[in-house]
């Protein structure tokens, strides 16, 4: 579509990946310390940026839109951060390892399955709309946003505070009257 060589595409992808990684720590600090966004809200925000990136890439008929999709996708990694942080807060201590190992297994298997499915979609739509595969992925991500909103509603303040949170609450109250209700 853009008549790029393999070397040019590899260069653009490498610069985008390297540039994105420079923003990881500042964006997480912005969301968690400055904006004080909840874990589920952070996850939903990250997935929304992924949806924006996928839609832009699916509709990128000019080069500048292709570059723009990388910029839009910079904060998308906070989706993973928010989900994992939220899970670590709502799961029992002995269940965390099991759930995270299951997630790691899914993260290893799903790209293989997804590649087969998305390759078929791309081959089918190549002649009339090559960006359909990205819009399909955006639709799947929108399902994730819906699930995250549902999780936010059912788990709102249902996890036990961490020890650090307990200590800060205790310091604010009189030592004799300090009690945490889970």
Helix and strand topology:
Elements: H1 6-21, H2 24-34, H3 39-58, H4 63-72, H5 78-90, H6 96-125, H7 132-154, H8 163-172
Helix pairs in contact: 3-4, 3-5, 3-7
Explained architecture:
Its main location: membrane. This protein has one domain (6-177): Growth Hormone, Chain: A (Up-down Bundle). The protein is mainly alpha-helical. The protein contains eight helices and no strands. The model is unreliable at 174-182 (pLDDT under 50). Helix content is 73%, strand content 0%.
Key features?
Adenylate cyclase, about 180 residues, mainly alpha, MFS_trans_sf, 8 helices, transmembrane, Growth Hormone, Chain: A, globular
Number of domains: 1
Residue stretches low in confidence (pLDDT < 50, at least 5 long) are 174-182
Structural class: mainly alpha
By DSSP (H or I, 4+ residues per run), the number of helices equals 8
For this structure, what is the CATH class?
Mainly Alpha
User: Terminal Cα separation, in Å?
Assistant: 57 Å
> What is the helix/strand order?
HHHHHHHH
- Portion in beta strands: under 5%
What's the short version?
This protein is mainly alpha-helical. It is built from 8 helices and no strands. It is globular.
